[in-house]
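Researcher: Let's do a round of design. I'm pasting the structure tokens now; please hold your answer until I've finished.
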């Protein structure tokens, strides 16, 4: 009997071969079929998917504004056969539409908010221009040739149409923009070619890629940020067709973007800070909801755990005291790969769910959108009876290929038509049996969607038909980029329907702009290589900049191929885990060719204890640190929920005034106060670290202080992750838990690095339900200030609508001196002899003379300022 060869194993083999072989062999791979075991695999599936170049010799002729009409939020321009709308949605955001006369303006499903109140604005006209002015943005419309220029309130040009203008080329909408040498570009979501997109060509069309470093990968977000003269703006090209971007690759004087079809619609966002752009962009496309606390913990997954594997791995984490919250089932749990079924590898799903809950684990199952066309399989029968599948042009149900892998078998899977609300509602209800057995999260894979038919480039053919709620038929080339987005909506709503008031957790591989409203993102089938470890940092940065802050990668790498050097060594895993402990979504996931890891003993297993005691201890240390930082991480997510703020931030996000951050790809901020500089080179025991200017930085491990604006060298043995803290930061922490909710948070540690003054607004809710949407949360502002001869601590309980378990704070002051006394009005604080003694008292302090750290235990109801006297008062202490 021939050995089964799975799609993921073949992709791993071929992708790694191309990466390691060089251009000559790469071209050979693209020229002929690839042989793997008992099958011939046609590489047409991996070629770029039918790109349609823009013919710049046939661009639309220049247009002239013949007349205009003022609207309640902007202007309508008469351009002859066409008309344009420029609408001011806010004082710093404009929507631009260029349409054939009589066509309606377009809004994609990626847009969350459409009911904008018009800002105050003025419109002026002269012979050459129509000018719209708000209090922060000027839109200068040139009448002939028609073009748009955006300026700030001081008259500085932010962005301007290029000489080629905007229009349609053979049905393809396009926009040209002027640029210059000092402009940089970021965003577009998940890409493998680095942080700064200047000088690059990009495409938006998600695909199961080969190799991983492909033009098209898993996510499609047509939003980018321009940074020029230290000022930022953003453009969302709201078009669901395949879109293309040329960021000054052809010329330093212009860049452009276009689409295969659809209407010309884009949104312009003025900064000037990158944070402002992302905030306004996510006002438009949606902020992330607050996730459940357990989803912020550490997770473990493998393709393909059985029930026995799951129970053994759960026991391993608990016995070894390595914190973890989530355990994930990949596709092998199903009955013959039929979605929404349990197979023989999980004989007792309800019992497993109960045991996982008792041990504090949350179970997440994978779900694929392809439904096997097998009469008698209830999901297929119901969907067929309700007429819910994607169709061929002739009206028959489209049949594609997914699991099980068999290259010679005929197509045997149908695909839900998620464009219909009826389908999405039906899909939501399919999760009920799984929720009933105790699963807590939904993991959506291969939802680009994938169909293993080479001529269609491993997706549905472009002419496949999706019918909307109004009976209008749409070709797949229009729906492809939003297919997963619609599926995520259905998955998210499953919680609303079936687990009301429980915070949803949905994880997706593919997505569009706005998908952050429904799901977290992981970056697909990466490889166990140092290159992919390095690549993950700028990739996650651009995913975050595109509005998806809840992002992570498979820690240690998913794909393995020992013959080609793809293997997760102890060193690689340790370095990846150190970085991975500080990802917004933190999960160790690995490939074992679909065989149970407890059965197939010769695979490269990837649970932390598989690599020896040193790596196990490193893993425990950094995962425990993540759990200590859970209050800090939860508050970072709260900021993302309110402002779109990134959790894993490229340095340029915070330090755009420092040009040395513009291309920094191997460091990042974890939240607003911690800078991570991971070691990403094989064999390295030190690395250069750039410290952004304008801030003082403290080495987390040594306490050494550095001025910003310099590059230093940090020694870093295998167990050391270079980590730096911004001075004047307060970082809330807690005691380590083995899982979220194991212990009540009774003492909040305020880890404080003080020079002048530091403030922090601490948010807390139950971290589980959606009661926070009804106001059930607390906000406490902390302020610590060095006043020369004493340090003052005060708190302001701004909102108190949640019954918190916090009884005390421990103010932890670094680089401190032993105080003369500590007092809050008439409440004197006793001196403790150790941290342990301190913890047993209501009001006390302890000074660690060796570490120069002061601990002050403060009751949560302390209403007066706490005064930490560091020097004698000249007036005798009065």
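Researcher: That's everything. Go ahead.
Model: Designed sequence:
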């Amino acid at each position: 009997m021939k050995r089964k060869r799975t799609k993921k194993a073949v992709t791993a083999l071929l992708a790694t071969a191309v990466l390691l072989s060089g251009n000559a062999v790469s071209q050979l791979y693209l020229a002929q079929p690839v042989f793997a075991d008992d099958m011939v695999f046609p590489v047409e599936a991996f070629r770029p998917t039918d790109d349609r170049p823009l013919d710049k010799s046939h661009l639309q002729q220049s247009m002239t504004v013949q007349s205009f009409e003022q609207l309640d939020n902007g202007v309508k321009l008469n351009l002859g056969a066409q008309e344009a709308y420029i609408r001011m949605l806010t004082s710093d955001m404009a929507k631009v539409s260029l349409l054939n006369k009589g066509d309606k303006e377009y809004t994609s499903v990626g847009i969350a908010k459409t009911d904008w109140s018009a800002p105050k604005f003025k419109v002026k006209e002269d012979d050459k221009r129509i000018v719209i002015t708000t209090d922060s943005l000027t839109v200068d419309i040139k009448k002939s040739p028609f073009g748009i220029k955006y300026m700030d309130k001081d008259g500085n040009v932010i962005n301007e149409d290029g000489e080629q203008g905007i229009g349609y080329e053979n049905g393809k909408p396009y926009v040209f923009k002027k640029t210059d040498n000092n402009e940089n570009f970021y965003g577009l979501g998940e890409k493998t070619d680095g942080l700064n997109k200047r000088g690059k060509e990009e495409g938006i069309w998600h695909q199961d890629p080969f190799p991983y470093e492909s033009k098209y990968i898993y996510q499609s977000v047509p939003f980018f940020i321009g940074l020029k003269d230290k000022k930022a703006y953003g453009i969302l090209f709201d078009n669901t067709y395949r879109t293309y971007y040329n960021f000054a690759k052809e010329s330093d004087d212009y860049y452009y973007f276009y689409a295969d079809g659809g209407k010309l619609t884009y949104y312009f966002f003025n900064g000037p800070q990158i944070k402002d752009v992302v905030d306004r962009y996510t006002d438009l496309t949606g902020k992330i909801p607050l996730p459940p606390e357990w989803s912020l913990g550490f997770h473990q997954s493998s393709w393909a755990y059985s029930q026995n594997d799951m129970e053994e791995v759960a026991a391993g984490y608990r016995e070894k005291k390595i914190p973890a919250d989530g355990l994930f089932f990949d596709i092998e749990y199903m009955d013959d790969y039929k979605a929404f079924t349990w197979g023989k590898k999980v004989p007792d799903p309800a019992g497993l769910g109960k045991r996982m809950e008792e041990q504090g684990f949350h179970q997440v199952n994978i779900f694929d959108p392809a439904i096997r066309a097998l009469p008698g399989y209830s999901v297929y029968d119901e969907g067929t009876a309700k007429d819910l599948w994607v169709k061929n042009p002739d009206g028959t149900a489209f049949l594609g290929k997914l699991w099980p892998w068999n290259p010679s078998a005929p197509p045997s899977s149908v695909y839900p038509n998620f464009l219909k609300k009826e389908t999405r509602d039906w899909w939501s209800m399919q999760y009920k049996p799984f929720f009933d057995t105790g699963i807590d999260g939904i993991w959506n894979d291969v939802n680009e969607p994938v169909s293993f038919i080479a001529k269609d480039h491993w997706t549905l053919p472009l002419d496949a038909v999706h019918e909307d709620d109004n009976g209008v038929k749409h070709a797949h080339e229009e729906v492809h980029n939003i297919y997963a987005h619609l599926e995520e909506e259905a998955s998210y709503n499953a919680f609303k329907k079936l687990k009301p008031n429980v915070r949803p957790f949905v994880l997706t591989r593919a997505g569009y702009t706005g998908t952050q409203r429904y799901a977290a993102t992981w970056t697909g089938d990466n490889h166990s290589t140092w290159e992919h470890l390095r690549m993950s940092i700028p990739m996650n940065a651009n995913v975050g900049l595109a509005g998806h802050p809840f992002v992570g990668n498979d820690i240690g790498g998913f794909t393995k191929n020992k013959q080609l050097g793809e293997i997760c060594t102890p060193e690689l895993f340790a370095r990846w885990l150190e970085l991975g402990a500080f990802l917004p979504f933190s999960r160790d996931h690995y490939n074992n060719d679909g065989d149970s890891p407890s059965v197939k003993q010769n695979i490269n297993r990837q649970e932390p204890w598989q690599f020896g005691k040193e790596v196990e201890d490193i893993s425990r240390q950094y995962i425990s640190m993540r759990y200590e930082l859970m209050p800090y991480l939860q508050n970072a997510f709260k900021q993302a929920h309110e402002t779109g703020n990134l959790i894993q931030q490229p340095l340029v996000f915070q330090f755009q005034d420092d040009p040395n951050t513009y291309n920094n790809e191997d460091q990042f901020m974890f939240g607003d106060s911690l800078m991570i500089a991971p070691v990403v080179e094989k064999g390295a025991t030190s690395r250069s670290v750039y410290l952004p200017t304008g801030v003082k930085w403290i080495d987390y491990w040594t306490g050494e202080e550095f001025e910003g604006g310099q590059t230093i060298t940090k020694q870093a043995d295998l167990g050391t992750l270079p980590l730096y803290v911004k001075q004047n930061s307060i970082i809330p922490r807690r005691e380590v838990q083995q899982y979220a909710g194991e212990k009540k948070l009774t003492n909040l540690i305020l880890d404080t690095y003080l020079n002048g003054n530091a403030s922090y607004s601490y948010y807390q809710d139950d971290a589980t339900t959606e009661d926070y949407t009804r106001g059930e949360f607390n906000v406490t502002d902390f302020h610590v200030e060095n006043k020369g001869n004493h340090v003052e601590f005060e708190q302001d309980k701004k909102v108190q609508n949640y019954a918190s378990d916090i009884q005390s704070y421990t103010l932890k002051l670094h680089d401190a001196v032993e105080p003369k006394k500590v007092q809050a009005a008439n409440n004197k604080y006793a001196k403790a002899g150790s941290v342990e003694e301190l913890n047993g008292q209501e009001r006390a302090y302890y000074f660690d003379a060796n570490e120069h750290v002061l601990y002050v235990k403060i009751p949560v109801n302390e209403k007066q300022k706490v005064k930490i006297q560091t020097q004698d008062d000249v007036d005798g202490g009065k």
